[in-house]
Amino acid sequence: METQKTMYYQPAPQLPATLLVIDCTCRPRLIPLKGDMTFGRIYNGELCSITVKSAIVGRRHGEFVYDDSEGVYYYIDNNSLNGTFINGRKLEPFNERGSRAYRLTDGDILRVDRKTLDKPHPEAVIMIYCTSMRYDESWQMFDAGRFVNITIGRGENNVIRLTDISASREHAVLRRNPNGWTVFDNNSQNGISVNGRGVLGNAHVSDHDVIKLANTTIIAFGNTLIYNNPKEITGNLMVRIDRKTVDFGRKTLLSNISFQVDSGDFVLILGGSGAGKTTLVKAILGDGKAEGMIILNGQNLYENFKSMKSQIGLVPQFLTLRLNDTVKSTLMDIADIKLDRKNYSKEDKLRRIYEIMDKVGITNLQNHLISQLSGGQKKKVSVAYQLVGFQKVFICDEPDSGLDAASRRQQMEILKEIAQNDKIVMVISHEPDDAINVETGESLFSKVVVLAKSARDGAGHLAFFGSVNDAKAHFGVSRLQDIMLEINPPYEGGKGRADFFIDKYIAMQRRPRYE
Question: Is the model's pTM score more than 0.85?
Fold first, then answer.
């Protein structure tokens, strides 16, 4: 008899969009975005939602526009005198009102400054758009004026010591040069980026540049370094595949795939025969690069593969726990694999597995043999096993293949619980209707991606993205697996309606309020 039942969680609430703002006062402010908001300088006759102290910012410089149909923010520069740079590129005027609306994603860097960003204006303003940063996150300021070399990491001998567990013990060095700084990556496990671009070896850092070091953000602001010391961040994954080809571009496998999922999402990938499910998975993993972007927490996987590859990975089909091992030794074994010896000592690994055991609720079971655990407790150990590393996106290609119905449901329950620990889990399954909450009868999946092979070009297109209930309504079916009958060709026993549903999905998408 089980003494601990598997827990079923409500989806984790997505963190609200937040703007980190730094003006000439050099004091970081975190501003939660709520609906449409205006941005401008402090001025007696004009009061914007977001105000900064800066002579080079207009009275009504720009606007943050919320699109409630997609739950995303856009930014528009109101044809301001000095303009707005986003990720180093200036928004150009589009019409008499302002620039084209720029769709913001986690980690985007907005800046009001001179045209030459390497020589910033004394009253320049930096804003970082975040959906993975907590509103109550603490920020620290470090006076770097007297230092030539600044070591950064978790180790006790670093000049800047981080509590960020995903940072390496000796993660990086900032070395002063005549034109700013040079950042060196000490072969860290989770890498470095500067202004969203991955660093291979070292990179120049100018004043007002933004360094991302594991989960930590560091902003160079004159002789001051402004940084946070976060816990593991949540976030989102944006997939945009314009085209994926083979045979030197002669054959297109995927075309016009675009969707976004958030931490806590358990995503089902369905697809008709030859629609490109495995091709999509490989593109998201970075194994088989497509034309487009895979953006995780504001960073492009294709541009930063070395530092990001550990954050997106495959999950084994089914984890078999060794019955004669204790819970603690089971988790230490995977810590030895996922946390390299150079960057993580034995004490670091123990700290990590205790943190995970506490999070999952199995600390009291640490010395129990696996054979002594109930079925529900074994599931929790399986969840903890996957959480020890720093993977943010888990992709599973038919994890339920070859299993009986009970084992399929158990596997899906484990994956669901991994997602509810602020992760993203994506699954290809041919038996999706077995993944249900046995107590409520509701699907365990929160989102559904449906690919269909078009008869017009032979490529896989997006035929649907949304909730389970909306997917059933879109295809007019009562079961998820019946979607395949609608889109598969007649020679495979289907109704051959792939193009109908591709066109229907395109037509039903509401366009953003601003182009």
Answer: no
